[in-house]
Design brief:
By secondary structure, this protein is mainly alpha-helical. The protein contains 17 helices and 2 strands.
Length: about 450
């Protein structure tokens, strides 16, 4: 709970659901652009013939086609955000376009900021260098992409910072404070430095991970024979989920890349709570605890859901539909963020789409998907011990995501009165949130604290 906030403030629900800082059409535009690019890649031989382009006549299923997909999904979202939603005019950008300063009046500030920004990138590069996992497996592609982008980013940062500092209401942001700390000539705010480093830690860690997983799913979907999709319910569930996970990854990748103030997509704050970082990091490599052989691996002696439902075609098709629906909700929860998706950050308040039904639709749908697809209480060994063990570990995995949700709510409630209003409105009006809240009320008395995440 934010300092100085009383319990009655948190529990007072507004009459109407607060407006969302992201319009629904932003994500829709990104989704449309992504699907268009997938269609082009799948039909590249026809496209190349029609345009008389040189090169091989084969689907574009390589890793660089996957990287190009971020442009096809990101550019339409940027266009809608600027041309229709006009996000660049919002006060939350921290920009005053009507009163640009002379370049000479901000040049010293910009130099200090560039020093802080470049030092931050050098620090991230050093971590990439010494962390062995970045130089093996799927991360090799991420390092190749980041290495190729490094020099252009350094060069483009100079005109970008000089241009932006002229119109920022307060150009002395976190990068400036970090630069001032390093240069040692001006007073700096340690809290701003910490905020800056946390924000770039999010981008550095999750950005490399997202780049590393882009090629796999993209290549499979581009090369997929559609006849294989509808062969049986298990295939439909598998490939439907693969396509929806591709959407999730591509839109999320754009969110990590486009943290720009003129788009009102900047990281306003990164989560300051250590337990939130711990809960998040154990869900991702190299720290992931749910991987094969890990302490939270619930897969030993389990089988795919289709094995347990074999011979029951009606139930198989129903189960496949449920799995696809849950994956669709998960992907929708990412698409709804538009340009603003990223872990462990506050980048505005999202209240529409699936977030009108649940405060954490992605976590809820993801965990339900795992329970339905794995069925940890059924084991191939027939051992009761294995069944109990897997079920208990799966419950612990779900508890980790519950923990993540609570730690995120603690951060957002501390940052924004709109989120506190949204939190209260959802508790009283959202069907899933209200239902889970009543269930918890029957199991334990309510206290003056945040209600459970869902």
């Amino acid at each position: 709970m934010p300092a100085g906030m009383s319990a009655p403030d948190l529990h007072a629900a507004p009459a109407a659901r607060p407006s969302s800082d992201v319009s629904a059409m932003v994500g829709v535009c990104g989704l449309a652009g992504l699907i268009a690019w997938i269609v082009i890649c799948r039909n590249w031989p026809l496209v190349a013939d029609a345009l008389a382009l040189p090169g091989p006549r084969a689907p574009l299923a390589g890793p660089y086609a996957a990287i190009a997909a971020t442009l096809f999904s990101g550019l339409p979202m940027i266009a809608w955000s600027v041309l229709v939603d006009k996000v660049h005019r919002r006060a939350s950008t921290g920009i005053d376009w009507k009163a640009p300063r002379r370049l000479g009046s901000v040049i010293d500030i910009s130099i200090t900021k560039l020093a802080g920004l470049w030092a931050t990138w050098a620090l991230i590069g050093f971590v990439y260098c010494i962390a062995r996992w970045y130089w093996q497996g799927q991360y090799l592609f991420a390092m190749e992409v980041i290495g190729a982008a490094a020099i252009p980013l350094f060069a483009l940062s100079v005109p970008y910072v000089l241009w932006l500092d002229r119109v920022l209401v307060n150009p002395r942001d976190g990068a400036w404070h970090f630069g001032a700390m390093l240069i040692g000539r001006e007073a700096y705010d340690a809290a701003e430095v910490a905020h800056h480093l946390r924000a770039w830690a999010v981008k550095g860690f999750f950005g490399a991970f997202m780049i590393s997983i882009l090629p796999g799913g993209f290549g499979e979907i581009v090369k997929l024979n559609l006849a294989d999709v509808v062969r049986d319910p298990a295939s439909l569930a598998r490939w439907g989920a693969e396509f929806l996970f591709l959407i999730d990854v591509q839109i999320a990748m754009v969110g990590y890349l486009v943290t720009l103030k003129p788009l009102d997509a900047q990281i306003r704050t990164a989560n300051p709570f250590g337990d939130a970082w711990f809960a998040a990091l154990i869900c991702y490599p190299p720290f992931v605890l749910m991987a094969g052989g890990g302490p939270l691996d619930y897969h030993p002696a389990t089988a795919d859901w289709s094995r347990w439902l074999a011979g029951q075609p009606a139930l198989m098709w129903l189960w496949a539909g449920l799995l696809i629906a849950l994956t669709a909700i998960y992907a929708w929860a990412t698409v709804a963020f538009g340009l603003r998706f990223s872990n462990l950050t506050y980048r505005g308040v999202l209240t529409n789409g699936p977030y009108a039904l649940s405060r954490h639709p992605a976590y809820l749908s993801k965990n339900l998907y795992w329970w339905l697809s794995t069925m940890p209480f059924l084991v191939t060994t027939g051992s009761l011990v294995d069944a109990v063990r897997n079920t208990a570990i799966m419950a612990l995995v779900s508890a980790v995501y519950y923990w993540r949700a609570l730690s995120e709510e603690r951060h957002l409630c501390a940052e924004d009165a709109k989120y506190r209003a949204y939190h209260a409105w959802m508790r009283e009006h959202a069907p899933i949130t209200r239902g889970l809240g009543r269930l918890r009320g029957m199991l334990a008395p309510r206290g003056p604290r945040l209600q459970p995440a869902e």
